[in-house]
């Protein structure tokens, strides 16, 4: 029976799945967990603890959960607490509203596929308040996390049109969920490059170049815009957004606006503008837009009702006069202020190093510095079969315990090298990281020059 | 611009998605929600409330959540309660264990894609205890609900092999998630029929007939078995399972064993046997099997950590000597006893009616009675462009407010008609439903005879 073919093997597996690559879950991260185990087992290392700057995983990095939201969730899960004097009335009111709209009064029940009506209405209200233009709650569809929504929307395009493969424009650098999903669904990928010299700006001329190239091999049907940027941390200007919408209109492209970091804007002269806001300026626009509802941003899969309860609480926070108002504002601002502080620190520190440049982190939770690797380092990397930036990241990991992600996982201009770091570590640890990083980098450049 | 093609329309949408049909979410259910609204608005109907027997949605039907599990979840969400004297020590111990294994000690963090190590180990332990044979925790992968897992596994097969479309064997009647997923992924569907005359039994001769047919148009690669059955409620015997495994081995098929209702077995001479248990009897078997981890069964999307915490609590329930043991057993048994009572009632009642036969509900949460529709009813249905069983279900809905699902949504032998009803309504309401159903059915048969 040795020659019998396995019913599922690398030879007969869906080839799209084989091609999948997800930088955020690759060998570097695997090695980091192995190192963590080795440290626990007492293996000697040049460091005593791992410093994780690889994942946009706020709570793992010590960000404190917002009390109000957790209170609402605790009560919907355990309704006996609705009578507990420990909880403030505004949290109770939110919890009761959610429970009242669940079938059987239990968060263990199913909801409509599009989400609970009260949640969708609340999200629409939130969007109206944010944008100052009407939002129809029936166009709000709650998904099990942003990844789920992105997959579901892209799935709609997964077919040939007029004998051509459908294509989707994505930024480079990008969040690798997009490239992975396009690969999985057999959709053509049209790269457009963000301009590092202009603060990772999005130039319409580059969009035009990219779509012209794309049309040679596929039928472009949609464009992904990530704002604020991941991994690049830029915030698009109003003018830029309007240009992109015009371009999409002219090219008849569906816009997927990934706006999960809309609350995370740090620079005083930057402001978040939603794509939806300007939609109405172009009456008759046929490219319908879609908005990630993953404002909560902490679960890859939002659970059917618990996640919706979370979304409801976030879009319906305590108002002035309600008992939790002050504490909610205080907790939220503390988080944003500390992110802002680290956003400033990160660019400043990296720009002070030799052979690194770094655009400011205007928003989101990341910086994407460029490293100017000496030719010798590139040579050694290639001799090991590694991308040079991945080689750099491995060296950093083994020598300092700092875990970042090599730029090649997100895409970059050929011949340039980068890495993504988060700004999520608590400030003291973040300072330590930047110090150790500086030391490592100086040594690395010296060794390979 | 009127002639401009929309960038996403029915003309250029992924055709697999257009074909998707999901009986559980179709026009009948939509109409039932409309009726519910009309009742609220005071529209006169022959009934005053909807009776939902269409969805396997336990909590919506008034099933009471298990206190122990809710306590664990409340504490992992709101860890301040770990010090609350209201909660028993065993629930606290579970909550602490889960929180200790979360990064940053928060359920708001991400976990490994396969799930938390402690959860996977606990599930493996649960399976070992259940089956009496070893289970490797590294083979346990936690998914965001059974639907997610089913989609992910079937996705692996979505490709041509040796120039042939891959095919998957599914039972008829089946849970429509399977047919929908196969359609979505462009996989060929090979129907095998369950034998209604043998209590919805699974006959290997029928499997052989089906695969022989299937091989004419595709390359059969996997077989789905639902045990206990949905919508059919049968429980497979040990002998039957062994035969299926042998068949799968001979045909080199991957077995997808959907065992989400393993706890729901009502007949004294039936016993649940997992497919995994007998796997080891056939050393060298190449068809690897996969097991739905959706033992909790209450969320379509299990959230990343909250759902895992739920799974952990269910597979690690209070043991003898622990403070919650008695109350947990009492609550669990009360639920199972009341389901058992209704499982007996449902077949007995339907079998007492004219022109209906109904196999016993040995397990799961459903019955799938056969209705012998008069030719005149079939004629009227067809003149309205409806499947006869859907016509029957619509009539029932409009006349009595009872919502069931027509058999054509699950598949049935051509020329036979069925419907699926759940046994989830609380016992008093369930009795009322059966009474009203009897009245309606008698009238219906009389009218169309």
UniProtKB/TrEMBL annotation, chains A, B:
<dbReference type="GO" id="GO:0005615">
    <property type="term" value="C:extracellular space"/>
</dbReference>
<keyword id="KW-0032">Aminotransferase</keyword>
<comment type="subunit">
    <text>Homodimer.</text>
</comment>
<dbReference type="Pfam" id="PF00155">
    <property type="entry name" value="Aminotran_1_2"/>
</dbReference>
<comment type="pathway">
    <text>Amino-acid degradation; L-alanine degradation via transaminase pathway; pyruvate from L-alanine: step 1/1.</text>
</comment>
<dbReference type="InterPro" id="IPR045088">
    <property type="entry name" value="ALAT1/2-like"/>
</dbReference>
<protein>
    <recommendedName>
        <fullName>Alanine aminotransferase 1</fullName>
        <ecNumber>2.6.1.2</ecNumber>
    </recommendedName>
</protein>
<keyword id="KW-0597">Phosphoprotein</keyword>
<dbReference type="InterPro" id="IPR015422">
    <property type="entry name" value="PyrdxlP-dep_Trfase_small"/>
</dbReference>
<dbReference type="GO" id="GO:0030170">
    <property type="term" value="F:pyridoxal phosphate binding"/>
</dbReference>
<dbReference type="GO" id="GO:0005737">
    <property type="term" value="C:cytoplasm"/>
</dbReference>
<keyword id="KW-0963">Cytoplasm</keyword>
<dbReference type="InterPro" id="IPR015421">
    <property type="entry name" value="PyrdxlP-dep_Trfase_major"/>
</dbReference>
<keyword id="KW-0808">Transferase</keyword>
<dbReference type="GO" id="GO:0042853">
    <property type="term" value="P:L-alanine catabolic process"/>
</dbReference>
<keyword id="KW-0007">Acetylation</keyword>
<comment type="similarity">
    <text>Belongs to the class-I pyridoxal-phosphate-dependent aminotransferase family. Alanine aminotransferase subfamily.</text>
</comment>
<feature type="domain" description="Aminotransferase class I/classII large">
    <location>
        <begin position="91"/>
        <end position="271"/>
    </location>
</feature>
<comment type="function">
    <text>Catalyzes the reversible transamination between alanine and 2-oxoglutarate to form pyruvate and glutamate. Participates in cellular nitrogen metabolism and also in liver gluconeogenesis starting with precursors transported from skeletal muscles.</text>
</comment>
<dbReference type="InterPro" id="IPR015424">
    <property type="entry name" value="PyrdxlP-dep_Trfase"/>
</dbReference>
<keyword id="KW-0663">Pyridoxal phosphate</keyword>
<dbReference type="GO" id="GO:0004021">
    <property type="term" value="F:L-alanine:2-oxoglutarate aminotransferase activity"/>
</dbReference>
<dbReference type="InterPro" id="IPR004839">
    <property type="entry name" value="Aminotransferase_I/II_large"/>
</dbReference>
